């Protein structure tokens, strides 16, 4: 029969493991949930008395306040949490490999493998092991081989795939009312029992018809497929935005018109300066690598183009800024509003703002950055990584970090909107205009401003996807 899960361990206290398992604890007071990580600072922040959590996510603090100390625990004692749990989520990072075979494309599975080996090494009893991390198709098979080859007698391991579909900025909403929960298992009696054990955990708050159960490989591939299709929609709308700018069509109107077709649907059609975030690019490259390994070069080329279009969109936007500022920005002052990869998160991984600032710096412009959530230290780290040949002191001579949008725009020639923070919709553009050098330019990479109102003030305005 399926195991009645009473203790859960989650390995990895990051953007996924933290919120996901905090919500499980919140919704299942009868289950004890321990989230573990090797990173002491991260665990300390999760445990901090003033709830200064390591990630910013609307609603997360309330969930953690409710459950922490009751049935939700954060710890660096990985072994103990593994030993006590009936069910273990593996929610570690799976970044793109930087070197070796598949560098630049394949997922680095080292962290998944180390966590798996740890489970095998310390477990005294049988466990359900759940892949939460996004992994290439058939990773569960490697995990099973490692677990079976290293387990103690009497220990059984059942592997499930349970990919996570939350988006940052809306993680808590997404977790409380998911479109679907996907569970993949082997279609054997043991596999199906394990699947039911996990489905019963979600049944505490997710309607039954939203819990989809499929085979292991379909589950793994569905996660890559969902991200690839979402990113493809953005690259498609961004490709059309270039046509709009060249023809005088308006991408907002085009998106609205095509989104009315119920087969296309209105969501996720916002043209932008390019998509960012830790996963879209990584997961598509992963799919490209998978396709190539399976000797499907046409399939690989098809998906690769989604990432290439995104690179093009980012560089096209930088070029518009340079072209419009009379073909040179050397020595000019540019405010960049927003550094996070999207609103309502402090996360900057693959943020298009990083590419923009890098491009502006290589043209020797001066840049002032403001973001309401991103820590200053993170900005310096990202810029150092983006400009590996430039010493940080040199970067710091060209870049200033401001503490408000208004401050950032003072004495600038141009303002670039890189993230769609709500507060940027409420900027007092009259005061911004007074304090800027003239002619004053606004480049809106997020379709956020009322271009006509700004032009009436005196600004020269360029909005992504809109011809003059
Ligand atoms: P993250 O880097 O924020 O968190 C991963 C954590 O795992 C880190 O804190 C790291 O210290 C810890 N870790 C690594 N190896 C460990 C080990 N052996 N033992 C204990 N802890 C270990 O990453 P994330 O954004 O949470 O992503 C995790 C996975 O979820 C990735 O595969 C990602 O593709 C996937 N995913 C992410 C999102 C998202 O929105 N960020 C959404 C869906 C899926
Ligand atoms: C995305 C997916 O939406 C999640 O379902 C998935 O779980 C997650 O990746 C993951 O696997 O990591 P996330 O990256 O957090 O979530 O955020 P999104 O809302 O998808 O935004 C990604 C990027 O696309 C952002 O830079 C955003 O600004 C951009 N975007 C999004 C657009 O440019 N236009 C849109 O219409 C939507």
From TrEMBL:
Q: Which keywords has UniProt assigned to this entry?
A: NAD, Oxidoreductase
- For the keyword Transferase, the answer is no
Instruction: Give the matching Pfam families.
Output: UDPG_MGDP_dh (PF00984), UDPG_MGDP_dh_C (PF03720), UDPG_MGDP_dh_N (PF03721)
| SMART domains associated with the record | UDPG_MGDP_dh_C
Pathway this chain belongs to: Nucleotide-sugar biosynthesis; UDP-alpha-D-glucuronate biosynthesis; UDP-alpha-D-glucuronate from UDP-alpha-D-glucose: step 1/1
| Xref: InterPro entries | 6-PGluconate_DH-like_C_sf, NAD(P)-bd_dom_sf, UDP-Glc/GDP-Man, UDP-Glc/GDP-Man_DH_C, UDP-Glc/GDP-Man_DH_C_sf, UDP-Glc/GDP-Man_DH_dimer, UDP-Glc/GDP-Man_DH_N, UDPglc_DH_euk
Chain positions recorded as NAD(+) binding sites: 12-17, 37, 42, 92-96, 133-134, 168, 279-282, 349
Q: In the UniProt record, does the keyword NAD occur?
A: yes
Say which domain of life the source belongs to: Eukaryota
Question: Which residues constitute the catalytic centre?
Answer: 279
Catalysis: reaction(s): UDP-alpha-D-glucose + 2 NAD(+) + H2O = UDP-alpha-D-glucuronate + 2 NADH + 3 H(+)
Q: Which part of the chain is the UDP-glucose/GDP-mannose dehydrogenase C-terminal domain?
A: 335-451
Q: Which GO terms describe its biological process?
A: glycosaminoglycan biosynthetic process; UDP-glucuronate biosynthetic process
Query: GO cellular component terms?
Result: nucleus
Recorded GO MF terms: NAD binding; UDP-glucose 6-dehydrogenase activity
- What EC number is given for this enzyme? 1.1.1.22
Give the UniProt family note. Belongs to the UDP-glucose/GDP-mannose dehydrogenase family.
Q: What is this protein called?
A: UDP-glucose 6-dehydrogenase
Organism field: Fibroporia radiculosa
